[in-house]
Amino acid sequence: MKEYEKTGILSVEDINIPDMKYLRKGVAIIECVQEIPCNPCVTACPFNAISMKDISSIPMVDFDKCVGCGKCISICPGLAIFVVKVRDDGFAEITMPYEFLPIPKIGEYVTLLDREGKKQGKGKVLRVREGSRKTFVITVEVKEELAMVVRNILVKSRGE
Length: 160
Ligand code: SF4
Ligand code: SF4
Hints:
Elements: H1 3-7, H2 20-25, E1 27-30, H3 40-44, E2 50-51, E3 60-61, E4 81-86, E5 91-98, E6 109-114, E7 119-130, E8 136-143, E9 150-154
The structure holds iron/sulfur cluster (2 copies).
Residues 30, 32, 38-41, 59, 76-78, 80-81 line the site of one iron/sulfur cluster.
């Protein structure tokens, strides 16, 4: 039995991580390991970059085809898709689904959280988009070494 089957929390070893040449371009990282009948990510991609052998298979990203547009992020009911782009200045941009309130503002510093919900310092919000299913799509700037660590954010309540 894999560790995440006991804890419900994935680790980096459970995920298909692309080479740095793709991370520099910015590509989708799919953190979906459950073999359940689900495939909206496949049809959401305008570049046919996501494929599945059958409806219950684990989705795979063709990193050559993926352009990092993020259209697949908010369509995923499992909130399992992120776009990661590693810049050449020591920082990375992580684009993630976000379904809490308050919605962060561009330029705001938010608390970065890892897959376990542990705090990983602060990051600056670069972009805020409203996606489908009332899911927002937020891009945060993080130190490069946190590119595969940060997967959520905590936004300070207004008035605090
Ligand atoms: S980020 Fe865009 S191009 Fe890449 S898999 Fe998602 S929808 Fe397709
Ligand atoms: S939409 Fe999300 S949960 Fe469904 S198969 Fe795609 S990545 Fe997995």
